[in-house]
Amino acid sequence: xxxxxxxxxxxxxxxxxxxxxxxxxxxxxxxxxxxxxxxxxxxxxxxxxxxxxxxxxxxxxxxxxxxxxxxxxxxxxxxxxxxxxxxxxxxxxxxxxxxxxxxxxxxxxxxxxxxxxxxxxxxxxxxxxxxxxxxxxxxxxxxxxxxxxxxxxxxxxxxxxxxxxxxxxxxxxxxxxxxxxxxxxxxxxxxxxxxxxxxxxxxxxxxxxxxxxxxxxxxxxxxxxxxxxxxxxxxxxxxxxxxxxxxxxxxxxxxxxxxxxxxxxxxxxxxxxxxxxxxxxxxxxxxxxxxxxxxxxxxxxxxxxxxxxxxxxxxx
Length: 316
Description:
alpha/beta, two-stranded antiparallel sheet, 7-stranded mixed β-sheet, D-Maltodextrin-Binding Protein, domain 2, elongated
């Protein structure tokens, strides 16, 4: 794929299958795709935001399809963008590495794009990677749920992802990163009322206590009920917060009970701000995985981040 003047660029069919000849437009597209923002993409590219916007519009005219949905903050890739990124990410990254672009004077190394659950990224992952950042490694961190993050990883939007389940198929490589134990907890004001009843009566003792969870279908609590009590959880959520740190804050303040990863509430359990309502001999355990695409990454910092996380995971 050789660069040409923009006026000579070969048009692309609406299906997105014809070749594009302007490498600059593709590089801009990939940076916007990975950063999720025209503004964020401008700095690494050495361009103004208006130039980035103009280049994306030019590429959209060539393809005849919208590549990004403009949001109040940033942009969201369309299915056409996902397909284009999957086709051009590896060749463009390889070209950048072969040309020595990353090592050029005054040019910063490519950032490592890392994705995973928000609470794990904030409480465990970022502190573990702080020494690498101090050494010059650049990170772009994206929180989210495992299923969509794995699809974005396959499309090349991320370099690494932390998944709450092992991905299927051979398009991704996964290694176990950490085990997380789930615990049933509440603030002392609720524990004093129901802990003894729970031991005597079983899970029905909690039906009068508000359930706080991160999703309407209460997946963590349902799994705990099935694994520990051998029963189906029947009480609906009283509060849903799409971030386990918010769930932790609400329950610590006395909003009700919940099921959390032990690592996330260890300090509150140690201080007495939260109380274990039940201590089963066989608590539910979930394994988290560090996932990447097959092959050696072109950016050596991806390997540094991967190795640092695996080392840190041994102590989590």
